[in-house]
């Protein structure tokens, strides 16, 4: 089977195991290596396919002889094994780049610092309801490579992170969506926003005049990045502050989406399933994709009205003694927490904290002053949160478990308030993942 060459896959999660499956199907000699421990679900799958793998180490003799390496987005380019591969001149690519070679489906690729999961799910929901044969992959759902190996979709909605884009070279998005660019993951980009922005702009690489690029005309950093990288594709901006000729805009309470002259979709924002300013942007982006694909207005309207958002993203957990509990554990950066606070209409007891990725809390100051009555820190090191907000709120408390944080927040809140878990940080100091953090919070709320 080694006729095709040797593919080594670094990282045995959803994307790695999916890539292994596709590489084996295409006749490569495949080896999987994970520096951490491999979840049982994935090791069982590799055993079933008789694909050799290792965990807890990277054995260089088994890796450096690869024809090509597919790496997990979580492994930084500064990792020793990646540096050694670069020295040897072995190409290192992402799962998306690899799988893209083996499908002719139309690619709808969505990136941005915030809102990409919601927008990807909403876009997928609209396309599926319209009867298109569509798959959902990337940073969300099942592995893209595994779907390419086993399914025959005509369209894919792919949620793409900057880490994935860094390892994508020849892949092309037929429809690319850039929602926004705000400081996130700067530790991977030498703490320079322009490096991160350049990475996001790779979403339009290889596009031609026959492709489509959709972006937010109100996002300062996107506009700046567009001065450095000019799209060849047909562009459709969306805005809530000004009218645009082709694209989407908000006029009072009505969204207008038009990709063709005389064929406009209008919809009142009160009809949208997703509420809050940031979700108007997400809905506009999805709506433009749907109009580009010439779906019926009726279908688009209906889908935008009955969509159910994802778990851990502004998810209403319960109302107890007149206090609303909201799980926004997926808010792993400051901008996500800004969006969450921006959509609150009551006084808030905010639970935040965790692993700080070099956060700048200044952008939250105004919202914290106007809406937050107390902050409950949930993390091992909360000094930067205290320093940032000690002048803005009367109470800042440290806690070290979801249960403790929830109980204290409940005591600090009164009838009519909202307890909001929106951490602005990664979860790895106390939890396995943001999902684990959200689930522990929900369990603690149910115990109140």
Automatic annotation (TrEMBL):
Note the PANTHER family from the entry.
Answer: UDP-N-ACETYLMURAMOYLALANINE--D-GLUTAMATE LIGASE (PTHR43692:SF1)
Q: Any idea where the Mur ligase central domain is?
A: 110-289
Pfam families attached to this UniProt entry: Mur_ligase_C, Mur_ligase_M, MurD-like_N
Report domain Mur ligase C-terminal positions: 312-425
Q: What does this protein do?
A: Cell wall formation. Catalyzes the addition of glutamate to the nucleotide precursor UDP-N-acetylmuramoyl-L-alanine (UMA).
* Gene Ontology annotations of biological process type: cell division; cell wall organization; peptidoglycan biosynthetic process; regulation of cell shape
Q: What is its EC number?
A: 6.3.2.9
Q: Which domain of life is it from?
A: Bacteria
Give the protein name, as stated in the record.
UDP-N-acetylmuramoylalanine--D-glutamate ligase
Q: Which reaction does it catalyse?
A: UDP-N-acetyl-alpha-D-muramoyl-L-alanine + D-glutamate + ATP = UDP-N-acetyl-alpha-D-muramoyl-L-alanyl-D-glutamate + ADP + phosphate + H(+)
**Locations listed in the record:** Cytoplasm
Pathway assignment reads: Cell wall biogenesis; peptidoglycan biosynthesis
Q: Which residues cross the membrane?
A: none
Write out the GO cellular component annotations.
Answer: cytoplasm
Leading EC class: ligase
Binding residues for ATP, per the UniProt record? Answer: 112-118
The record's family statement is: Belongs to the MurCDEF family.
């Amino acid at each position: 089977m080694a006729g095709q060459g040797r593919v080594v896959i670094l990282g045995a999660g959803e994307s790695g195991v999916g890539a292994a499956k596709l590489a084996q199907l295409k006749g490569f000699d495949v080896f999987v290596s994970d520096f951490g421990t491999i979840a049982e679900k994935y090791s069982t799958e590799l055993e079933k396919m008789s694909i050799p793998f290792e965990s807890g180490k990277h054995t260089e003799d088994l890796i450096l002889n690869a024809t090509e390496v597919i790496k997990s987005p979580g492994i930084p380019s500064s990792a020793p094994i990646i540096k050694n591969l670069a020295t040897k001149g072995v190409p290192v690519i992402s799962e998306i780049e690899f799988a893209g070679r083996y499908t002719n489906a139309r690619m709808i690729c969505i990136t941005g610092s915030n809102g990409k999961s919601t927008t990807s799910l909403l876009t997928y929901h609209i396309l599926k309801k319209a009867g298109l044969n569509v798959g959902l992959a990337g940073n969300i759902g099942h592995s893209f490579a595994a779907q390419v190996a086993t399914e025959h979709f005509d369209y894919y909605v792919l949620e793409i992170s900057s880490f994935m884009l860094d390892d994508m070279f020849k892949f092309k998005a037929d429809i690319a969506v850039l929602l926004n660019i705000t400081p996130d993951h700067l530790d991977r980009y030498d703490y320079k926003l322009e490096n991160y922005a350049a990475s996001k702009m790779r979403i339009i690489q290889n596009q031609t005049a026959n492709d489509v690029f959709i972006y937010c005309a109100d996002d300062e950093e996107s506009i700046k990045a567009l001065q450095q990288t000019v799209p060849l594709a047909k562009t459709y901006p969306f805005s809530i502050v000004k009218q645009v000729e082709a694209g989407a805009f908000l006029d009072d309470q009505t969204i207008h989406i038009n990709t063709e002259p005389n064929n406009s979709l209008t919809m009142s924002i009160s009809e949208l399933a997703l509420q809050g300013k940031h979700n108007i942007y997400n809905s506009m982006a999805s709506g433009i994709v749907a109009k580009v694909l010439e779906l019926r207005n009726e279908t688009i309207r209906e889908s935008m009205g009955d969509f159910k958002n994802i778990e851990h993203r502004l998810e209403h957990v319960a109302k107890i003694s007149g206090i609303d509990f909201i799980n926004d554990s997926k808010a792993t950066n400051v901008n996500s927490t800004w969006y969450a606070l921006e959509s609150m209409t009551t006084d808030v007891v905010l639970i935040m904290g965790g692993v700080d990725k070099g956060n700048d809390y200044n952008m939250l100051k105004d919202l914290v002053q106007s809406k937050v009555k107390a902050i409950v820190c949930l993390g091992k090191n909360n000094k930067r949160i205290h320093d940032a907000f000690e002048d803005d709120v009367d109470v800042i408390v440290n806690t070290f478990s979801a249960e403790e944080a929830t109980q204290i927040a409940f005591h600090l809140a009164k009838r009519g308030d909202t307890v909001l878990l929106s951490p602005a940080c990664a979860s790895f100091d106390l939890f396995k993942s943001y999902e684990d953090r959200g689930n522990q919070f929900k369990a603690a709320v149910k115990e109140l």
